[in-house]
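Researcher: Structure for this, please.
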Amino acid sequence: MDDRYKRALETVAKINEAGSDRIAEAMGEIAPDFHRLIMSFAYGDINSRPQLDLKSREIATIAALTAMGNARPQLEAHIIGGLNTGLTREEIVEIIMQMAVYAGVPAALNGLMAARKAFQVHDDEKKTSQPRG
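Model: Predicted structure, token format:
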């Protein structure tokens, strides 16, 4: 395993490891090398840089994906990543609402619907990962 990919796995484990695993599984059927390339660049080269903490990077990513308006699965994954790196639901909602000013109300509405789904997925994942007593 090369250093970039190792850094990528360490970084994504702090953000949204379950989401990355789902992408790896899906890509394994059609383009197994693509996941490794994405991971190595996005998480091994960029997100692992020390100039911004992961929470700040997730703020930027949520804002950008909301503004793009055409990357809902990735937005949902990064909303979960935002929660995992210390953002609150209220902060995430504010980030998305802020995008109404710059990307338009439809983009913000779509982002809020993505947040609704991501919050539910996050809650469900927490329920299934907790040890039963």
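Researcher: Any notable elements?
Model: Residues 105-129 form the longest helix (25 residues). Residues 1-51 form one domain.
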